Amino acid sequence: MDEKVTEWLKVLSRGPNDVVRRYSGYVINGYRFHTTNREARLKTQNSGVTLEAVTQVLRNAKDENPKKICVTYYGAIKDIIELDYYGHEKYVLFKCDWFVDEKDKYGSPLVYFNKKCYKNDPFVLTSQVQQCFFIEDPLNKNKHYVLNALPRESFDMGESLSTDVQEYDISTNLNTLRDDCEVDLVRKDLPDDIFEIPLSELHNQKAIESDHSDTSYGSDDETDYDSSTD
């Protein structure tokens, strides 16, 4: 019996590590996803997800020939977590708020942000979803129309980046952003050198620093975890 059990199944049976990694951004299948918390301080919208699933529908309790239909779900990413099976396997999940949806008289899909569903089933694999955008109805702030997004970042088997990229900094795609992570910004691999600075130059330097003390610098960009680098 043990010979028929694959190593992959043994790894899954042990369960994941108790410590998980959380991300505020994730790049996969040409889409850049953000959590709603991170998106709140950005000008772009990247937290919307859509998922298509095939389900069986019974006409009644005695129906022996259930009908298979394709159901579309719409939601927003609340959290991004990575499950680590002790170095053997890693799986990234989106924790989402799913919204009640319907179609208007023209057949356009729409959702209600104040009506949530499937609260006991918030998780989905990142590979299962596509991205969508929500456009607020001018007459009802809880009512949002849904538009499907097109992949903006295409990768060629992980070897190079496609040139068909819109407003995307390639250098930010090479690193991983982890929440609650301490990063040492001091180089410790260099020798200690002592420099003698004349007192006159020191006064000039302080004057320059005081001129720029009221200047603030900021950026909306943060590095997202890129699944293609694994």
UniProtKB/TrEMBL annotation:
Short name of any one Pfam family annotated for the protein: DUF4216
Annotated segments matching region Disordered: 206-230
Domain of life of the native organism: Eukaryota
The DUF4216 domain, residue ranges: 81-144
Comp. bias (Acidic residues): 219-230
Protein name as annotated: DUF4216 domain-containing protein
